[in-house]
Amino acid sequence: MKALKSYTIPFVGLKIGEHHFDYQIDNTFFQHFDYDEFNSVDVKIDLKFEKKSTLLELYFSAKGVVNVNCDITNEPYDQAIDDAFKLVVKFGNEYNNDNEDILIVPHGDYEINVAQYIYELIILAVPIKRIHPGIEDGTLESDILSKLEELSPQEDIKNKSSEDIDPRWNNLKKLLTDK
User: Residue 94 has what DSSP assignment?
Assistant: First the structure.
C-alpha cells in the first residue's frame, strides 16, 4: 500500500480551519484494491478537510465518469458519477471504524489515509444494475439485443382462430349464456 501514500494526510502540522485536497482517480488506483469491474475511470475527488480543536471533518465530493459494461448486453458505456460523503474523525483510546460516518483514531495518531473512503465512495456511486442508456431509449443496436428479441416468447391471442380452440370449451360457454 506504499503506492497509496499520496492519500495520507498528516493532520498534525495543519492549522485549525479549512483545507482542500484534490485527487484525480484512474484505473491504477483500483488496481491497488484488486478491483477490475471498471474498464476505465476518470473521477475527480474534492476533499474539504476541516480541522477543529477536538475533531476532524472530511467532506468528500466525487464527480466524473467510469466506463462499465452493461448488465444486459455487455456493451461498454460511460456511467456518470456524482456523489458526496461526510466523515467525522474523533480521537479516543483505540482505533474504531464500526460506524460508517464516524472514525475514532487513537490520541497519538498524526495522519489519516483516505484511500479506502475514496474507493468506497466511487464503488457505491455506481448503480447496482448497470443498464446502457441506449437500451432505455431504444437507440442501441446490438447482436445480443436482437437475439434476445428473437428468442423471446411471442403470444398473439388475437391471431388465434376459433378452429384452434378445443370444441369442448364451446360447450362450456353455452352454459354461461343459459339461464
Answer: S
113-151, pLDDT tens digit by residue? 999 999 999 999 999 999 888 877 777 777 666 777 777
Question: E-assigned strands of 70-141?
Answer: 76-92, 102-106, 111-113
27 conformational bin, left if phi > 0, alpha if psi -120 to 50, beta if neither: alpha
Question: Phi and psi at residue 150, in whole multiples of 5°?
Answer: -65, -40
* pTM of the predicted structure, to 2 decimals: 0.75
> In the prediction, which pLDDT does 21 show?
93
Residues 6+ apart with CB under 8 A from 62: 43, 44, 45, 81, 82, 83, 84, 85, 118, 121, 122, 125
Cβ of 62: how many Cβ atoms within 10 Å? 21
